[in-house]
Amino acid sequence: MPLDTESLGSLRIERSIATSGGGNRMGLYIGIAVVLLVVAAGTWFFLRPKPTEVSTVVAEADSSGPSLGTSVLNASGYVVARRMATVSSKVTGKVLEIYVEEGMEVKKGQVLARLDPENSSTMVTMAERELEAARRNLTEIEVRLADARRNLERNEALVKQQLVSQTALDTSRAEANALAARLAASQAQVKVSESSLAMRRIDYNDLNVRAPFTGVVISKDAQPGEMISPMSAGGGFTRTGIATIVDMDSREVEVDVNEAYINRVKSNQRVEATLDAYPDAPLAAHVINIVPTADRTKATVRVRIGFEKLEPQILPDMGIKVRFLDDQPVQTASPATGPRIRIPAVAVLPQGDMKDRHSHPWSTTSSFGLKWRCPSSWPHLSTSTEPSPIST
Question: Which of the two ends of the chain, N or C, has the fewest CB atoms closer than 10 A to its terminal CB?
Fold first, then answer.
């Protein structure tokens, strides 16, 4: 039987059609997967946890230590030195050398400067020669007086023997008396010459300008080659001082207190002094006295305050604030307590009301009703609304 080729051809499978249908299904699967990924990514983006911005603030201590007591009056003034002198020379002269600089410590009697000694040395030499001449003149008169007295004794003996006249005796007596008077005058002249020489030597020694007391040089007011004089001279070319010295042991505080509040101040009252340059280092002090006069233009009374201990950082003319304290005894703080710490109110997280202030052993509620937590070992903390430096 012959093979029916047309019937066999109808039974053949078309490969292109099968391949095309499978490709469409695969693309559909891929599209669905892409959509699911996009949806998942969008959901995660919108539902992801937001990043938290953290900022920190600086807590500051109220002071470096506990207060010395309760204040009854506040005032401000300046540090002054009770012993301060601008040292000058006793004589007028040209500055030859200066041996000090600012900040140098000097002892009493130490030479600060030396003036040109040329003129003074000449005057000393002249006074020495005048004294020598006076002494030689005195020696001559003493010799002549001794001879006149011998002649007088001889004439007195001869008059008794009536060998010379009374006139010769009177003449020898007058000569002896005159020489005795000249001798007394010559002795006085010698003393004058000695005094003149001593004065010239003092002037010569005064060319060395010395420190009147122990202290510190705070100002150098002259230079070698300039003229110096104990009194002011016209023209402005003559200096009146070599250097200014301050006795650092005489430092104290002077404040002007309003006369309406002077009744709160008394002698030996405790005072807390704080230098403007060192606000975190209060100094113990006491009232020395109240100056018994008032300034009618300012309606103030001057009060002198002495330091309990003179510290190196206390310098003359520094600004200072003082707190006059009451008579209550100072309460000694525990060493573990430490200084009071101030925290800005913006750094405190509100949690509940005032009834929960002791609900946690590590929590503390501020005076603003705000609650924060800290370890129990921290020092006493307090909040403050004052701005503080913030670091992020």
Answer: N
Q: For residue 302, what are its two tokens?
A: 């001057």
Q: What is the pLDDT of residues 227-258, one digit of tens each?
A: 888 876 555 677 888 999 999 999 999 999 99
Residues 6+ apart with CB under 8 A from 93: 115, 116, 119, 120, 207, 227, 228
Q: Of 142, 155, 139, 149, which is closest to residue 176 (Cα–Cα)?
A: 149
175: tokens are 């000569």
Please write the tens of the pLDDT for every residue from 298-355.
999 999 999 999 998 999 999 999 999 987 765 554 544 555 566 666 666 666 554 4
Triad 242, 243, 248: Cα angle to 5°: 155
Q: Is the pTM of this model over 0.70?
A: no
pLDDT of residue 376: 44
Spatial separation of the C-alpha atoms in residues 94 and 116, rounded to whole Å = 5
146, amino acid identity: A
- Beta strands 283-295 and 270-275: pairing type? antiparallel
CB 278 within 8 A of CB 311: no
DSSP per residue over 108-159, as a string?
A: TT-EEEEE--HHHHHHHHHHHHHHHHHHHHHHHHHHHHHHHHHHHHHHHHHH
Q: In what order do the strands lie in the sheet with 93-98?
A: 208-210, 111-115, 93-98, 227-228, 238-239
Helix (H) or strand (E) holding 33: helix 15-47
Q: Residue 98: count other Cβ atoms within 10 Å of its Cβ.
A: 19
